[in-house]
Every structure is written in structure tokens, then in C-alpha cells.
Amino acid sequence: MTTYISADDLAKLVRDPSKKPKVDYLVVDVRDEDYRGGHIKGSINVPAHEIQQKARSIAEEYKSVPLVIFHCALSQVRGPKSARIYRETVEDTLVTAKSGDPLFDQQVNVLRGGFNSWLYRFKDTEPDLITAYDATVPRDDF
């Protein structure tokens, strides 16, 4: 089952000075070329077509991060599918993991509405929540 997080709830995390990206939460942007036209502050970019190959290394590198959030442009296909692939990879890893492994408690969410929702919600009111915004880069609206 896919669990979603709203843009407002994610923004609370990003704004919170006591929360650090890649430590307290991880935002995984699975868009392709349009990532360079703007992305969520502190996010990493792993294009959806690379998730299958990179899920295990992401899980290992960020195993202590309690919340991992995936998104694409709209979070209708690539974001949820990437979250599922990542979660299945984590579950496979946990079969042989020792008890107490932080992956047991890691939550995986999908950003409701994707980056497009985030962009239109915050670009004019809180542009510091968006890194490298470039209005000339075409948006991937599918």
C-alpha cells in the first residue's frame, strides 16, 4: 500500500532547522532531465529507470534515515512505482538483516501531487524550498 505525504507536511520537515536532509528524511526525485530545472531543497536525483539497479545501494547508504520520500512530476506513476521497488528491495534485504537494523523502522512515502504540486505551491511564496529553479526548462507533466 502506498503512503502519501502532503507538500505542506514535507515543507514542515524541510523548513525545520532541527531536521537535516539525508539524516532525518530523504527526498528521492525520480524525474529525468527536468530535475535540472528545479528540485526540492536537499533532494537527491535517481531517475526512475535507474531505481531497480540503485535501490539496494540507496537503502545501504541511507539505512539510518527514518523517512524516505519519492516523487516524480505528478507522483502518479514513476514516483509510486519507484517507492514500491525501493520498499521491496528493503524487504528483501531485511530477510537476512540482524534485528535492530534501522531499515526495519524506515518509512517510505510518496509526495502527493509530485514536484509540480510542490513547485506551484511554493515557487512564489517560499522559493527557498526549491533549488535551481529555471522556468525555461520544460516541465514533465505526464
3D architecture notes:
- This protein has helices at 7-15, 51-61, 78-94, 114-122; strands at 4-5, 26-29, 39-40, 44-45, 67-71, 107-111, 130-131.
- With 142 residues, the chain is an alpha/beta fold.
- It has one domain (4-131): Oxidized Rhodanese, domain 1 (3-Layer(aba) Sandwich), CATH 3.40.250.10.
- A five-stranded parallel β-sheet has the order 1-6-5-2-4. It has a two-stranded antiparallel sheet with strand order 3-7.
- Helix 3 (78-94) links the parallel strand 5 (67-71) and strand 6.
- Helix 2 packs across helix 3.
- The chain starts with a strand and ends in an 11-residue tail after the last strand.
Q: Helix and strand succession?
A: EHEEEHEHEHE
Number of domains: 1
Number of strands: 7
The secondary structure category is: alpha/beta
**Kindly state the mean pLDDT as a whole number?**
93
CATH-defined architecture: 3-Layer(aba) Sandwich
C-alpha-based Rg, rounded: 15 Å
Biggest sheet features: 5 strands, parallel
CATH class: Alpha Beta
Helicity range: 25-40%
Instruction: Write the CATH homologous superfamily.
Output: Rhodanese-like domain
Order of strands across the main sheet? 1-6-5-2-4
Task: Write a concise synopsis of the structure shown.
With 142 residues, this protein is α/β, with parallel strands linked by helices. It has four helices and seven strands; from the N terminus they run βαβββαβαβαβ. The chain starts with a strand and ends in an 11-residue tail after the last strand.
